[in-house]
Each structure stands twice: as C-alpha cells, then as structure tokens.
C-alpha cells in the first residue's frame, strides 16, 4: 500500500513538472493569450473526450492553474501540495463559456 502511494506521488510529480515546463518553455511574449488558451484546451478537451461520461477528470494540473488564473473561474477541486489534481465537467464547461464570451463573440 505504501509503495503504491509512493509510486502515485512520483507519477504526479512528473506529470505536474512536465506540464509546467511545457507552459513555461513556450515563448509567451510571441504568443497571444488566445493561442495559449487553445493549447490548454487541447489537453483539457482530450481528457474529457477520452471518458465523456465521467464528471471528474485528472492529470491536467498545469491547465487547471492556467484556466483559474486567466478566467478567475476556480475549479471545484481542492488544492493539494501538487496543485489541483482534477477538474469537473462543470469547470470545463464554464471555462469554455468564458472563452467563447471573450474570444469567439
């Protein structure tokens, strides 16, 4: 049981660090905020598309952080030492609605 928890912690650490590295390594000065949203939505949308009947989706901590920071819509997920580990379908729908209202209208 303890070994399983250690493996989960290591896995989540790698996922979080990799995700944040991808966001930070991109040259934000050359990219518009709309393009940054599009990239984050690709990850979130793929999580939802892979299990469309679920209501909670995992492994998108950097994307959750990006969405919360830029839309001021907080995820229902509790904050952990790794950040927020999941988002709900309602969060995803609210972020898409915000994006549509600010960039697509």
Task: Using brief descriptors, characterize the structure shown.
single chain; 105 residues; mainly alpha; two-stranded antiparallel sheet; two-stranded antiparallel ribbon; 4 strands
Blueprint of the fold:
Layout: H1 2-25, H2 33-50, E1 56-58, H3 61-71, E2 79-80, E3 83-84, E4 86-88, H4 89-104
Can you characterise this structure?
The chain is mainly alpha-helical and 105 residues long. The protein has one domain (2-104). The protein has four helices and four strands. The protein has helices at 2-25, 33-50, 61-71, 89-104; strands at residues 56-58, 79-80, 83-84, 86-88. The protein has a two-stranded antiparallel sheet with strand order 1-4. A two-stranded antiparallel sheet has the order 2-3. A hairpin with a 2-residue loop joins strand 2 and strand 3. The longest helix is centred in the first third of the chain and has 24 residues, at 2-25. It starts with a helix and ends with a helix.
Low-confidence stretches: none
Mean pLDDT: 83
How many domains? The number is 1
Question: What is the CA-atom radius of gyration, in angstroms?
Answer: 14 Å
Question: Which structural class best describes the helix and strand composition?
Answer: mainly alpha
Approximately what portion of the residues adopt beta-strand conformation? 5-15%
């Amino acid at each position: 049981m303890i070994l399983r928890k250690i493996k989960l912690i290591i896995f989540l650490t790698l996922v979080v660090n990799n995700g944040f590295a991808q966001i930070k390594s991109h040259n934000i000065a050359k990219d518009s905020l709309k393009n940054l949203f599009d990239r984050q939505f690709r990850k979130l949308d793929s999580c939802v598309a892979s299990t469309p009947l679920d209501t909670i989706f995992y492994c998108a901590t950097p994307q959750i952080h990006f969405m919360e920071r830029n839309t001021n819509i907080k995820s229902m997920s509790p904050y952990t030492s790794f950040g927020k580990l999941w988002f709900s379908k309602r969060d995803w729908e609210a972020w898409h609605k915000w994006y549509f209202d600010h960039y697509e209208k």
